[in-house]
Task: inverse folding
């Protein structure tokens, strides 16, 4: 695992309008993730530097653009965030067949994601991730 930024998310009120904008201006392509209001974003040639991300319908009017950092052990990273003065703002959750995701605030209040790759991750309603 890299401890590097590996993914971004752009929340928006009008996903269709924003997809058209980013496609027209930058040539980005989008693919909907299942039936969710979430689209995977390919930003360019994957053999060159850069990252891909996601575009989603806003869940909250204050939801910021967030970058996710890949970690080897999300539970350990969450503990390190708290010990260093950060705050977990969204607890660990499964992204089915992709991995685990949580969000935290750094000491300045910026929101970031933590991501642990795990193709066996499964969402089970009513069950807290371990």
Result:
């Amino acid at each position: 695992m890299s401890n590097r930024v590996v993914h971004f998310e752009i929340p928006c009120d009008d996903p269709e309008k924003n997809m058209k904008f980013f496609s027209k201006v930058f040539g980005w392509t989008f693919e909907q993730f299942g039936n969710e209001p979430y689209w995977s974003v390919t930003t360019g040639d994957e053999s060159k530097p850069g990252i891909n991300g996601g575009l989603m319908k806003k869940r909250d009017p204050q939801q910021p653009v967030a970058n996710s950092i890949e970690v080897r052990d999300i539970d350990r990273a969450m503990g390190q965030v708290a010990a260093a003065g950060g705050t977990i703002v969204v607890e660990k959750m499964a992204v089915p067949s992709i991995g685990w995701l949580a969000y935290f605030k750094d000491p300045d209040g910026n929101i970031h994601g933590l991501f642990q790759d795990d193709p066996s991750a499964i969402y089970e309603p009513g069950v807290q991730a371990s």
Observations:
- The chain is about 15% helix and 40% strand.
- The radius of gyration is 15 Å.
- Residues 7-59 form a domain with the 2,3-Dihydroxybiphenyl 1,2-Dioxygenase; domain 1 fold (CATH 3.10.180.10).
- The first strand starts at residue 5 and ends at 12.
